[in-house]
Amino acid sequence: MTAADATPSSPAGASPAAAAGAVNGSVTGPVVRPRRLRTTPALRRMVAETSLEARQLVLPVFVREGATEPVPISSMPGVVQHSRDSLRKAVAEAADLGLGGVMLFGIPERKDPTGSGALDPNGVLNLAITDVVAEVGDALTVMSDLCLDEFTDHGHCGLLTPDGRVDNDRTLEAYAGMALAHADAGVDMVAPSGMMDGQVAVIREALDAAAHTDVSILAYSAKYASAFYGPFREAVDSSLQGDRRTYQQDPANAREGVREALLDLEQGADLVMVKPALAYLDVLRAVREAVDVPVAAYNISGEYAMLEAAAAQGWIDREPAILETLLSIRRAGADIVLTYWASEAARLLAR
Ligand code: PBG
Q1: Dihedral sign computed on CA atoms, order 163, 169, 174, 178
Q2: Which of 26, 39, 165, 175 is at 20 to 30 A from 203, Cα to Cα?
Q3: How far apart are CA 223 and CA 229, in angstroms?
Q4: Nearest residue to 126 via CA among 66, 182, 63
Q5: Angle, CA 263 vertex, CA 201 and CA 300 arms, to 5°
Q6: Predicted structure pTM score
Q7: Residue ranges of domains in the chain
Q8: Which helix (H) or strand (E) holds 309?
Q9: What angle do CA 187, 91, 176 make, to 5 degrees?
Q10: Residue 39: pLDDT over 80
Q11: How far is the CA of 351 from the centre of ligand 1 (A)?
């Protein structure tokens, strides 16, 4: 091996011999040594380009109508469908840990074609919002998933036409009503996730007309029709047959993800999201570079389940793998990461 081979990081223009630190013709090794900055934990910490902090994490939580105790979700070990009581405990803990927020999902006892439980002020999600706000006050940002799929008996994110297609514009009316119900219940931020065209504008208009001008909108802007949502379907007892490919994005399209984010900003979104996270880190980076608002990424159920399954087999070292996963999403450009590990990760980061 020549000296040049041994020093791929030779400064441009420097002679291989100089870069290799040749003294009196004997090779003593490279002058440029990136390893120097990796010598001690303190030095590594000082030069770290990306941070992972509790305040950047949002915990998604499920609350199940009628549940008297938490119900485990088998495909998401460690995640449960909460009762109203256990939900209060989980969010109080999230606040104590200094998380950025919680994202609430409701699972109604009865589903129907129009998802009427979503608009009912006594519906599970609306009651949960009030409970959570009463529990944590301003200590956490309380966010709600604004979508019909948990509430419809067909499992789609919108209302259906007589021939079974998802009706964009009628669905928008339902979303406006849902936004008002969430705002009346006290939510800080609504998160429309149904991928209907024009949803952000309709929601902003409805909120403003009802003087809820301070309720912000986190738009699930670039949301892909992903196989990795599988465990979530169990989490919300979804009755979906088929797929969501007429409204969620084609995994082949990255530019289109940026376009969706820009459209949502034009319509008044305060923050935008890319979802899923891991298989879409390129989209996340592209969106981060295209917008000047905070960008969130959702580390979704299937991503959680894969790592948990490998760890349960003893095939992967669970805790470092969790932190590396979340850090990779931050590094790709997410300001905010939604993750089922949020509380645990906050504990790991504190020790
Ligand atoms: C729609 C919604 C979904 C998720 C969050 N909001 C499911 C879907 O679009 O099919 C998925 C979250 C996850 O998989 O962790 N209400």
Answers
A1: positive
A2: 165
A3: 11
A4: 182
A5: 95
A6: 0.92
A7: 1-29, 56-350
A8: helix 301-312
A9: 20
A10: yes
A11: 31
Q: Which of 286, 197, 308, 183 is nearest to 246 (CA)?
A: 197
The CB of 303 under 6 Å from ligand 1? The reply is no
pLDDT(181) > 70? yes
Residue 305 beta carbon below 6 angstroms from any ligand 1 atom: no
Longest Cα–Cα distance in the chain: 87
Q: What is the CATH number of domain 56-350?
A: 3.20.20.70
Over residues 187-232, the pLDDT tens digits come to: 999 999 999 999 999 999 999 999 999 999 999 999 999 999 999 9
Mention every residue, 6+ apart, whose C-beta is less than 8 A from residue 182: 125, 126, 129, 144, 146, 190, 215
Percent of the chain at pLDDT above 90?
91
111 has catalytic annotation: no
Q: Is the shortest distance between the CB of 304 and ligand 1 below 6 Å?
A: no
Query: Could you give the C-alpha distances from 220 to 10, 128, 150, in angstroms and in order?
Result: 45, 21, 16
Is the C-beta atom of 62 inside 6 A of ligand 1?
no
Spatial CA neighbour of 156 closest among 67, 75, 218, 245:
245
Residue 274 parent element (H or E): strand 271-275
Please report the pLDDT score of residue 17 as a whole number. Answer: 47
- Verify whether residue 275 is a known catalytic residue: yes
Measured CA to CA, the distance from residue 137 to residue 101 in angstroms comes to: 11
Q: Which residues 6+ apart lie within 8 Å of 91 measured at CB?
A: 59, 61, 102, 132, 135, 136, 140
E strand or H helix at 39, and its extent? none
Task: Give the tens place of pLDDT for each residue, 108-139.
Answer: 999 999 999 999 999 999 999 999 999 999 99
> Three-state SS for 326?
helix
